[in-house]
Amino acid sequence: MTSVVKQSALIMGVLIDQKSRNKARRARRRRSPHKNGKKAKSIVKTRLYTSKTEMPSKSLIRPGTGLGQIALFMNGSLALATFVLGLLQTHAVAAPMERIDQRQIGIDLTTGTLAIGGGSDQKLAQVVTAGTSGLLTAVGIPLAGNGTLDLEIQGVTAHQPNGNILAAQSFDGSAFPDFFTDPQGFRRLELAQPIFFSAGTSFAFVLSAPGAQQGDSFGVLQGPVGDSYSGGDAFFDARPNAMGVWAPFSDFGRDDLPFETFVQTVPDRLPAWSVNTLLVSLLSIFQKRRSSSALYPLWVIRGALG
């Protein structure tokens, strides 16, 4: 019993002593020092963000506004980095890209070549249907020969060339390798002024040798038997047939020439996120010059491009 009383007294003593210390501490706080009759200002510690400390960022997308309205909080370094990234993204999106659009690459090496020019002054044509909207930049054909080769891009009426020349280009036959050097290679015939076609539009490329009477002649490898390309057929115009009359190759069992078309595609407009990235980061850089605050808000309000 005596030991229990002693322990209780000890505990009470500790509690009383702790209570006294707390009371004294509160009293000292009320008697804070003053200078020149004015209360001393309290010191508040703040965090300093350095280059070694990650700058917190915050984004807020309000409902119903989409990506066109964004609130960002960033510092100058992050703004500059974002601006450079936005430029790279915009360039990547806007940069034109050339691709093969239509092709029929089947070649029959067991038969002879088709003439362009020569004694019959023969012209060859192939109707093509664009699969992608863009600029037609070049046509690939497996051919070789000597003299001058003319390439025309014509409109199409009733599934055959209509004589309406949309683009034209001449080529020196000496620039192409012969069939002994490259027997199956497609020679690239590039247009100096590419022409735009929408997807689903039909056009024809026409090959001729204007110096046929002087001996200019070219040969084109033949395609396989049957209809190997569904977007159009091949035709020829040669003497002694009437000039300007196109006869279909399908009458002889081979519907199409070997060919490739190259198209350059460009997006209609930049995505809103690319424009917003550039605007937000650029405005951040200018805002940083006017404010010394480490954190500041910037709003990009949705506009015509948003």
Give an account of the 3D structure.
A hairpin with a 2-residue loop joins β1 and β2 (38-39). Mean pLDDT is 75; it is low at 2-12, 32-74 and 292-306. 22% of the residues lie in helices and 34% in strands. It has 306 residues and is α+β, with helices and mostly antiparallel strands. It is built from 3 helices and 18 strands. It folds into 2 domains: 58-95 and 269-300, no CATH class; 97-265, Jelly Rolls, CATH 2.60.120. The strands form 5 sheets. It has a 6-stranded antiparallel beta sheet with strand order 11-10-13-7-15-16, with no helix packed on it. The chain has a 4-stranded antiparallel beta sheet with strand order 5-17-8-12, with no helix packed on it.
